Every structure is written in structure tokens, then in C-alpha cells.
Amino acid sequence: MRRIYLLVVLVFSQFAPQLKAAAPAQEVHAAEESFGTPEILHHISDDFGLHIGPFSIPLPVMLYFPGQGWDVFSSSELHHVDAQGLVHGKYAYHHGKLTVPVLDAAGQPKLDAEGHVEVEAQEARLINLGGKAVFYNFSVTKNVFGMLLSVLLLLLLFMASAKAYGRRTGQAPKGLQSLLEPLILFVRDDVVKPSIGEKHYRRFMPLMLTIFFFIWINNLLGLVPFLGGLNVTGNIAITFALAAVVLVVQLAVANKNFWGHIFWFPGVPVPVKLLLLIIEFVGLLTKPFSLMIRLFANISAGHIIIMSIIGITFAFESVVGHTVGVVTSLFTVAMLILELLVAAIQAYIFTLLGSLMLGAAVEEHDHSHEHAH
Fold first, then answer.
1. Cα angle 47, 49, 54; round to 5
2. Cα(280)–Cα(115) distance, rounded to whole angstroms?
3. How far is CA 177 from CA 47, 85, 105, 182, 341, in A?
């Protein structure tokens, strides 16, 4: 029992400093006594630095100004706008967006008629709203760091496994081989091959294996407390990119049968064809959309639940002492174990549904048999 309690304390101690460090500077004292939605959202959102236990590790900020060039500096020089609108650096990070505030003669940000900080330049998004000057953000954020880390791990794992296969040709798998080979065979024989078909599955195996292991590794990294709360697959921009890759590949490899069943479904009256045209076109877009939302929602929900359970400790600490802390910590460990299963399931589901999309694009139909029937 003592060993279990020590394990719980270790896991909880990795999260707790992040929770108290999540609040802005003017709310540090309040964060020691309460814990709520802002701290949870801060934990699962992207950031310009890593918060690992009591340590804060800055990441490089790289901004490009059209016509002016690059400005590269450490995120330790980047500060939020405080409650009084004061900026303690050249750039302000406010409401998830980088801005260059307009300063008055005293070096403080100017406020507009509505009391908002006037912005000289702001981070460019999909479009430039308001006609303001923009700059482009190529910074290494927490999510970018997580992706680079996962790519490095994947390269190390598969390069080491490939070298082992070269040294042990014709022999039984050993070590890392024995770990990866069953997973690769599972993806090939139980996911990709049945979904795409014997004739075409081989050319899609590299893509599907990459997607499966990329999602799975990032899901696992998000459950490691001392990595600073990485939440790569819980970021909708990442899941959007993954779903977009599957959609683009599907459209690129689609045969005439696929397009024929979307734009002019064979064997049905013309009025029904027009109705099916709308339905099939909407379905073409909703399938990758569901891929994006499913992965994002499940991973984000897991992080939010774990952080909420931990927050109960802060809410009830002054009422019933450390008893609730022990119970919630045990429950947190149980949720982390459950999330290990969810991490694998979500990678499997994304790969399976993506394979079904590709299989539909390359499927060959025998229309002469359909008409005869």
C-alpha cells in the first residue's frame, strides 16, 4: 500500500506545479487556493514554452515581417499583457495571439475608445482582418516540439528495427523487432488490407503505418506528466492536417468508378441521381471532418477529465484535508491507465476509417454484373 501511495504522489507532483504555474502573474495567489477552467484550458492549449514540473523551458520564437525580415528570439522574452494593459516586452501574447502593441511616450500600450490595447501589427492568420500590418509566426511552440519529438522517436525506432532486420535476415524477431512487428502486421492484415483490398493495399501501407504510429506515439507522449503536458493530437489544427492528407490522397488516387458513383450514380433515375449527387458530395467532405473531430475531441476530453479530477484536490483541500487528494490521485492514475487504451484505440480508428476512404477511392465495380442482376 505504501508503494502505491508513493506512486500516486509522484504522478500528482508532476501535474501540480503546472496547475499552479498556469495562471497569469496577477492571479498567482488565487491559483494557490483555487483551480478552474482557465488553468485546464491553458494546460491543453498550445504555448511558447514547456512547463516541466517546477521548471519553465523557453522555446525559440521566429517571426517574419514582410519587407523587413526575420526576428528570432527566446520565448523567455515574450510576456503577456497584464491586467492593467502593461507590456513587459517587445511583443505581447494575448488571447492566444501575438501582437505588437502601439506604445505611448511613457512606453506603455495605448488604449482605444473601448479600452482595448491598440495593435500596431498582429500575427497573420488565414486572412488579415482590419487592414492591419501582419507578421507570420514560424515559432517552435509546445505542439511543434511534441511533433518533432515524436518524429525523432519514430525515426529512431524504425531505423533501429530496419538495421536489426538487415543483420538478422531469416531469423526470428528479437528485441525491438518483436515489439514493432506484431503492430505492423496488425495494421497490414487487420486494418489496411481488408479495407483497401488485396490489389491496391501495398502502395498505401507506408502512409497508413506513418499515420498510425504518429497518432499513437503522440497520444502516449501526451500522457507523460514530466514532458510538460504535450497535447499534439488534442489540437484541432493537427487533426485537421491529418484528415486533409487522407482526403487529398483519396482524391488523387480515385478512379472513374469513384467519381461516377459521386456525380452520376449508375443504375438509378435522373431525379434520384441529382439528389444522390448532393448527398455524396456532402459525404465526401463530412468523412474527413468526422476523422478530424473524433480524434481531437477524444484526446482533448481525456486531458480535460484528468485535469478536472486533479482540480478537485484544490477545491476540497481546505474542507476534508488530504483524504480527497489521495482518492483523486488514485482516480487520476486509473484514468491515465484508461487513456493508454484510448491512445491505441484512437490511432486504430483513424487508420481504419482512413483506409476505408482510400479503399472506396480505388474500388473497382463490375457494372455489367449489376445491370444483368
1. 120
2. 49
3. 36, 56, 65, 9, 22
Q: Which three cell numbers stand for residue 270?
A: 435522373
Closest CA to 24 of 39, 44, 13, 37: 39
CA atoms within 13 A on the CB side of 158: 14
Per DSSP, helices labelled H in 222-322 are 236-253, 256-263, 270-320
Q: Distance between CA atoms of 105 and 344, rounded to whole angstroms?
A: 56
CB 233 within 8 A of CB 239: yes
d(CA 25, CA 82): 8
CA–CA distance, 285 with 281 (Å, rounded to integer): 7
Question: Mind listing the pLDDT tens digit for each residue in 248-307?
Answer: 998 998 888 877 777 776 666 777 777 777 887 888 888 889 999 999 988 888 878 777
Q: In this structure, are residues 197 and 213 in contact, taking their beta carbons and an 8 Å threshold?
A: no
Can you read off the three cell numbers belonging to residue 300? 482533448
Give me the half-sphere count of Cα atoms (radius 13 Å) on the Cβ side of residue 243: 22
Residues 6+ apart with CB under 8 A from 159: none
Q: Which three cell numbers stand for residue 231?
A: 497535447
Spatial distance between the Cα atoms of 225 and 303, rounded to a whole number of angstroms: 11
Residue whose C-alpha cell is 506515439: 217
138 phi and psi angles, rounded to 5 deg: -115, 35
Beta-carbon contacts of 373 under 8 Å, excluding residues fewer than 6 positions away, are none
Total residues belonging to the chain: 373
d(CA 24, CA 31): 9
List the beta bridge partners of residue 57.
50
Which pLDDT score, from 0 to 100, does residue 301 have? 84
Grid coordinates representing 346 are 484512437
Pairing of strands 119-123, 133-137: parallel
Q: Is the pTM of this model over 0.85?
A: no
Contacts of 254 (CB under 8 A, 6+ apart): 361, 362
Alpha-carbon distance of 58 to 119, in angstroms, equals 25
Where exactly are the structural domains of the chain?
60-139, 144-365
Task: Give the dihedral of Cα atoms 334, 336, 342, 344; nearest 10 deg.
Answer: -120
SS3 72: strand
